[in-house]
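Hi U.,

Before I forget, here's the chain from the pilot set. I'm dumping it here mostly so it's searchable later in email.
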Amino acid sequence: MEGTIKSVIENGVGTITFFHPQSNSMPGVQLRNLALEIEKLGNDDNVKVIILQSEGDKVFCAGASFDELISIKDIDTGLKFFSGFAMVINAMRKAPKFIIARVQGKAVGGGVGIASSADYAFALENASIKLSELAVGIGPFVVGPAVERKVGTSAFCQLTINATEWQTAEWAREKGLYAEVFSSKEEMDKNIQILATKLASSNPEAMKMLKKIIWQGTEHWDDLLIERAGMSGTLVLSEFTVNAINQFKQKA
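Structure:
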C-alpha cells in the first residue's frame, strides 16, 4: 500500500505527481518525500514554475492516513507524523518558484492544506473541500495557518467547526482558495499549461521576489507548524480520537 512521488521537467515546468492507493491519503513517509521533491525542484535552475498534482479522478488528497494515525502510540511518533504536513507546507511556501496546484477531485483535511499552500490553484467542479479533523477528535492545527491565510478567518471557522460538511469548489473559489474552476479536465489542463508556459518564460528573479513578498509574514511558520504538530500528536493518543478514527475506518 505504498505511495509514489514522481516528477518530470519539461520546458522549464516541473511537474510533481503524488499517489497513494487509499484515496491519495498521506502516510508520514509520503509527506516527507513530497516535501523533499518540492525542495529539489525549487532549487533546480532548470525549473521556472512547479505544478503539483495527484493521480486519479475522484480525490486530490484525502489527508492523513488513517492506518498510520491509528498506529501512533506515543507523543514523539505523533509529533513526527504531523510534522510531515508542516514540512510540505513550509517547503511550498519557501520554494523560490510559483507552485500551481491541479485539484482534480475532493480535498480533505491535509489535502485542503496542501491546496491552500499553492500560489495558484486550478480545480474541477467536483473538487469539494472539507476540514474533517474535529470530527475525529483532533483539529486542523498544522494546516490551519495555510487555510486561514487563503480563505480568511470566517471561512476557516466555518470549515473547522462544521467538520462533516462538504463545501463546493465554487464556494472555495469565492473564498479565494481556488483561482479558477472548470467543468472539464481537458479545459482545466489546457489553462494550466497556458499559465505554466507563460510563467516559464517570465523573469525568474522577479518571480522569486514576488513569491517572497506574497508569503511575507509567515517566516515564523517553521516553528509555529511544528508547535501545532505537537498539539495534533498529543490529541491523536486520546481515547476519543482512537474510537472516532476506528469508526471512520469501518465506514470507509
